[in-house]
């Protein structure tokens, strides 16, 4: 019997007589749903991570440069470390400034703080660099201690 004869005979045989085709062993039934669940959870996790970046919280405000990044200082929102750069201001005058904030103007600043003569002279020296913007709660909370230590 030749191989071609056997192949032809099997091809023409009724379905019940044909041998089952060779296939790989089937994977366990639980592996497929787990893989789908794993992929689905990773996609949802990525989507959640990306959507968290687009939250509608106000993190910055127009005067952020005045919190120590420029020569002008927003007295109502700047923390105490900003005044370290100004000789004579830190720690006494700076402590009084941040403890008694907010202020509407320089006159109110002097009346609220009750500076000594030396402190008042130091503040007068830098008074032209001070501005008085609307206080923001997210900056006021860190005025005295912003968690940065040397």
TrEMBL record:
Subcellular localization(s) per the UniProt record: Membrane
Enumerate the InterPro entries for this protein.
Answer: PSII_PsbU
Instruction: List, alphabetically, the Pfam families matched.
Output: PsbU
Gene Ontology cellular component terms for the protein in this record: extrinsic component of membrane; photosystem II
> What does the record say about its membrane topology?
Peripheral membrane protein
Concerning its family, UniProt says: Belongs to the PsbU family.
Q: Which Gene Ontology BP terms does the record give?
A: photosynthesis; photosystem II stabilization
Q: For this UniProt record, give its keywords in alphabetical order, as a comma-separated list.
A: Membrane, Thylakoid
Report whether Cytoplasm shows up as a keyword of the record: no
Protein name as annotated? Photosystem II 12 kDa extrinsic protein
What is the originating organism of this protein? Emiliania huxleyi (strain CCMP1516)
